[in-house]
Amino acid sequence: MAKKKENSIWQGYIYLLFFAAVMAAIFFIYPDKALPSLQVSWSSLSQFLIIFPAIILLIGIFAVLATPEMVMKNFGQGSGLPGALKALFFGSLMSTGPFYLSFPMAKTLVDKGATVTSIIIFVSAWNGVGVIAEIIEFHFLGPLFTIIRFSLTAIFIVIFGYAAQFITDRFFKKKALL
Amino acid sequence: MQDYLFAIVINGIIFAAWLFLLFKDRRRGMEAVKIGCRTIIAMLPLILIIIGAIGLFSAFIDPNNIANSFGEQSGWRGFFIVALVSSFLQIPGIIAFPIAATLYHNGAAAGVVAVFACASTMASIFTLPLEMKFLGKRLPFLRLGLTFVLSLVVGVLTGAVFNLFK
């Protein structure tokens, strides 16, 4: 398993090399585009680099503290709005992991008896309003945009969590979740 | 500059939090750095490719085209096209927001940028099979459909509120 993971990391760097070759070829054909293109890349790279230490540490801190066990213990079967907000909070908190981890994690929550509302909210919050992503959003798009989009997205994730529950209850005959 | 202020403050706060963790539990503090570095090293190629692509995009695409297709005056068409295309994509937030910023600085409307940010990160058609493996057929489809609607609603509202305060 560990071996396989290492391979996939190298695979990413092979893609990067390939992409660099394509970029070099493009610049060879359009030499006048090379400088403006690299200038833009450099400015967004430097924007990334300045926030990198925070991102590295935060990913690590959350990975150590917000473990799946911790979420399992606190997620519970909380019903009503507190339960929904809990799902939103833990989804956002767990988002330091990649998106594909959100599905097995949600499955475990289903097995624990979570409702449709909290599953939809949990997975959507993990991917849509994650802590790390919000820091990046704030940094790249500014406070005004981030605050507006973040609050609206969070509110509608909760509303649509309830909508999903309503649709499931009303239109699906099979009551079992999966 | 405001950009740097936020970066410096957030770096400071998180570094302080990490020092606190390290002080409380040395082993977990070191573990945190290791996991963070490993995650970033795995993501770095994708980040660099996107940064390169952002540069190419800016050099080759005329901002006027972006403004015409996805700018304030593009109307519903811009919103729908972006929502549709984005629902095929599953982009990690770390990378989605730099792309969103590039679109915005090249003339896309704030609302359209918000549609992109929501639709590209929250659910996607490509990852549907994977999601169905764990959550059955019903929930993932429901979530994909709801995400599509959500991204349009949030996009339109974000655009309206953003322009109100801008």
Q: Flag low-confidence runs of chain B.
A: none
Tell me which oligomeric state these chains represent.
heterodimer
Name the poorly predicted regions of chain A: none
SSE class of chain A: mainly alpha
Structural class of chain B, by secondary structure, is mainly alpha
Strand composition percent of chain B? under 5%
N-to-C terminal Cα separation of chain A, in Å? 28 Å
The most extensive interface, with participating residues per chain, is: A-B, 83 and 83 residues
Provide an overview of this structure.
The complex is a heterodimer of chains A (178) and B (166). Helices cover 84% and strands 0% of the residues of chain A. By secondary structure, chain A is an all-alpha fold. Chain B is mainly α and 166 residues long. Helices cover 84% and strands 0% of the residues of chain B. Chain B has 8 helices and no strands. Chains A and B meet through helix 1, helix 2, helix 5, helix 6 and helix 7 of A and helix 1, helix 2, helix 5, helix 6 and helix 7 of B.
